[in-house]
Amino acid sequence: MPKAVVKFGGSNLKCKEDIGNIIRVIKKYEGPVVVVVSAFYGVTNYLIDSLNKARHDESIAQKTIDYLLSLKRETLELHVGDTNVINRILSEISALLEELGRYLQGIALTGDASPALEDHVQAYGERISAVFLAGILNFEGIETKVALPESIGLITDGEFGTASVDFVKSTAKVREALSGDLVYVVPGFYGLSPEGKTTLFGRGGSDYSAASIARCLGAPSLDIWKDVNGFLSADPKTVDNPVQISQLTYNEAAELAYFGAKILHPRTVEPLSSPHIPIRIFNIFGDSDLENPRSVVNAEKIVTKGVVKSVTSSEDFGILKLKGSGVGAKPGILAKVTTALHLAGININSVLTSQISINILIAKKDLKTAYSVVSAIELSAVGRVQIIEDIAVVATVGNGIAENYGVAARIFTALASNGINVMMSCLGASPIVCYFLVRKNDCIPAVKAIHEEFFETISPSV
């Protein structure tokens, strides 16, 4: 039987003690598994910061090496009681850090870094985590080997920053490389372009790495270990009594992730939905019962009593608004705008149009660049280009939302009853999502109002 693929993210690597939980979990699996690991919590952000500072500060390379080495040394000393083993693991990590230092020094000399170099540098957090974890597992008596994406043939389409796995080129190579009767630890977050360059899968992309490897192996499941109880009816930081969601479809999970739920990377389901490989989500601080995951994502479609399974939100989006008396009817305007944004590397999340306005939903971090790009285009029907940042997107997700009468009415009645104005809304673009835009300060009240309507006044079976 193919190995299960087990993913541990940065949330499992926040402090020195967390590694003990990972060891405990891996020992619960009856046979060898493939472990996909993220960087330690905060390390990717630290590397991005080092990249930026290295452009004008030669000392950053050594500071980065010293910081990351001390971080790993402290954790090793807590979990490994053999000085020789500690030194051996640190020696392997030091070799990686020396490579990293040379790249940062090169950036300091040139004052710049190519997209290829940026991807390569950011992936060192995962590379170091893999060496670190494999060393500790071997010390614990679990035969383990590091399997870098470049050594197992995880080939991508070559797009820097947001690559996708080429399964035609990767599947046989990955399956052969990970076929041994031992535990493999694979650094997540990146693959290799056909030309041999490091290409990242996007922020949080280790989930996608794990899903892609699971597909290549034909794994029985992808097991993702979190520090929370899987998918819930809302963020427990926002509502008091969220309901556990035991089962979701691939599409429901993808939409929740897309609109703000942090349980999965939005692309995690892409490789798994076609071969019907389930995603099982566990809480690493729970009882670690492998037979009872907190949430399962698979192909089984279940319409709950209240239809809505979860309500989520995000403040990471903004609106680029094109205003003019005939923009909705003028041929070619949207084509010109979307082409220009594509060439600028800006992703469009959604478009809502009317006769006098085109509203483009994009990541807030890209708004100013998008404004500059679109303002430079000759668009005869557009009288004004405007940025709207003070918004939040709230989404309700569940099979049957677009097919069951009364669901939308309950959503908007709950908002109106709490004095919350909806700026824009969309129902029907996806059969399982109703999403709308509100002012940022109405975001949490909106989530609470909808959650109360669907989960605190009835008892749906989820």
Q: Average the pLDDT over all residues and give the rounded result.
A: 91
The profile of the biggest β sheet is: 8 strands, mixed
What's the CATH first level of the domain at 5-227? Alpha Beta
Instruction: Figure out the total of helices.
Output: 15
| Radius of gyration of CA atoms, rounded to a whole number | 24 Å
Structural features:
single chain; 462 residues; alpha/beta; Carbamate kinase; four-stranded antiparallel sheet
Summarize this structure briefly:
By secondary structure, the chain is of the alpha/beta class. It has 15 helices and 18 strands. It has a domain of 223 residues: Carbamate kinase, CATH 3.40.1160.
Give a description of the structure:
The chain has 462 residues and is an alpha/beta fold. The chain is globular, with a radius of gyration of 24 Å. α14 crosses α15. It is 39% helix and 19% strand. The strands form four sheets. It has an eight-stranded mixed beta sheet, with helices on both faces. The chain has a four-stranded antiparallel beta sheet with strand order 11-16-18-17, sandwiched between helices. The model has no long low-confidence stretch (mean pLDDT 91). It has a domain of 223 residues: Carbamate kinase. The two termini are 31 Å apart.
